[in-house]
Automatic annotation (TrEMBL):
The lineage of its organism: Bacteria, Pseudomonadati, Pseudomonadota, Alphaproteobacteria, Sphingomonadales. This is APC family permease. Pfam families: AA_permease_2 (PF13520). It is a multi-pass membrane protein. InterPro entries: AA/rel_permease1, APC_superfamily. It comes from Qipengyuania profundimaris.
Length: 413
């Protein structure tokens, strides 16, 4: 990679991001970025499609997402930079245009996703109490932005604590449905032999939807410059996130379908809360926990987007220097963070975020395909150094093929 693209605008005299994230907090951060709203909200839609075969849908989705996640595990050790996907595209293709396209594409998807999550938070809150988005959105976004501005240590601990609470809520759901879970093998066998729930007609569409419940590792790798022992901690965090999220999804989906009918879960605005209510509890505690977990997704995006902007400005000459500047005291890109939070607020208040979020899936899948192909190119270069963590060449090839296949599949739906 040409030095003018990666290093020219970087100066040792400028403030840098602080290495404040330990390996355990990083693993919890990663789990929070992936699980988030995925299990608390969309599980009803996935079970509505696949019924008792929902665990298979989650398993297939984890395999599909796993190839790209493992490619990122190698890429982040080759290029431990805050740009994440943008840095990988830059190294693989050595194109300023493609780098800027990937970087700003990731920033845009992060901001839109955060706005959609904040909007969803307000809608989900109204299941329990009536609140207005006109004051709830600004307060929530301002709070998350304040954590992101204060420092990565504060942001990561916020993510870690809310993740522990969220996972605790999921285990609580499994505990209450444990007796009913004994009936799951019978339901699974019945669904497997049901001609109305074929693999192609029910499980694959559910797996397509479940794929988006596994992405988040592309946010995690943007913390590479702020992670202690990054070359070992980051790949471990990605592996932990994949395995832990899969186990949670399998357990919770099997429990949910054992307690409530698939059509009830599909129509529910808060499926897991309704499950707890079915077992005789009021559901308010789980509702609060689920809201905290949903907020995780927005926090991760508000943290991620400014770091990519920082990399684009500091190393790629693809963003203004004033926007990429790191504050000496907080060790964070304050201007980029505040502007990201403001953009999230405006989008959540005045734009159709669900429609915008639908388009972001094309961008994220395109970036996944480009990052996988970048790793293929890096591996095939004779001068390429061996990474601290390496995967077989077949992994990024499979990741690229799956990403392109998902883009085609989404266009056909």
């Amino acid at each position: 990679m040409a030095p003018t693209q990666a290093q020219a605008s970087s100066s040792p005299t400028q403030p840098t991001l602080n290495r404040d994230i330990g390996p355990w907090v990083l693993m919890l951060y990663g789990l929070g970025t992936v699980v988030g709203a995925g299990i608390y909200v969309v599980i009803g839609d996935i079970i509505g499609l696949a019924g008792a075969l929902a665990p298979i849908a989650f398993l297939l989705a984890s395999l599909a997402a796993g190839f790209t996640a493992l490619s990122y595990a190698e890429l982040c050790t080759r290029l431990p930079e805050s740009g994440g996907s943008a840095a990988y595209v830059s190294a693989g293709f050595e194109s300023r245009f493609l780098t800027g396209l990937a970087g700003w594409g990731i920033v845009a998807t992060g901001i839109v996703s955060a706005a959609a999550i904040v909007t969803g938070f307000v809608g989900y809150s109204n299941v329990f109490l009536s609140i207005s988005k006109w004051w709830a959105v600004p307060i929530l976004t301002a709070t998350l932005t304040a954590f992101a501005v204060a420092g990565i240590r504060q942001s990561s601990w916020f993510m870690a604590i809310t993740t522990i609470a969220g996972v605790g809520g999921l285990l609580w759901v499994v505990w209450y449905g444990w007796v009913d879970l004994g009936d799951f093998p019978r339901q699974f066998g019945s669904a497997w032999s049901d001609p109305g729930r074929s693999l192609a007609g029910a499980v694959l569409p559910a797996a397509f939807l479940a794929f988006y419940a596994y992405i988040g590792f592309e946010d995690l790798v943007t913390l590479s410059e702020e992670t202690k022992d990054q070359s070992t901690a980051m790949p471990r965090a990605i592996w932990f996130t994949l395995i832990a999220s899969l186990l949670l999804y399998l357990l919770v989906s099997a429990t949910a379908v054992s307690v409530l009918p698939a059509d009830v879960l599909r129509e529910s605005r808060a499926p897991l809360v309704d499950l707890v209510r079915e077992k005789g509890r009021n559901g308010y505690l789980l509702g609060a926990v689920s809201l905290a977990m949903i907020v995780n997704g927005a926090m991760a995006q508000i943290v991620m987007a400014p770091r990519v902007v920082h990399d684009l400005g500091r190393r790629r000459n693809a963003a203004p220097d004033w926007l990429a500047r790191i504050n000496q005291k907080t060790g964070t890109p304050i201007v980029a963070t505040v502007l990201s939070g403001l953009a999230v607020t405006l989008l959540a208040l005045f734009f159709p975020t669900e429609q915008l979020a639908g388009w972001t899936s094309y961008i994220i899948l395109s970036v996944f395909a480009a990052a996988n192909l970048a790793l293929v190119r890096l591996k095939l270069r004779e001068s390429a150094d061996e990474a601290a963590y390496a995967v077989p060449l077949a992994v990024p090839i499979a990741g690229a093929v799956i990403s392109v296949g998902l883009i085609v599949g989404e266009m056909m739906l």
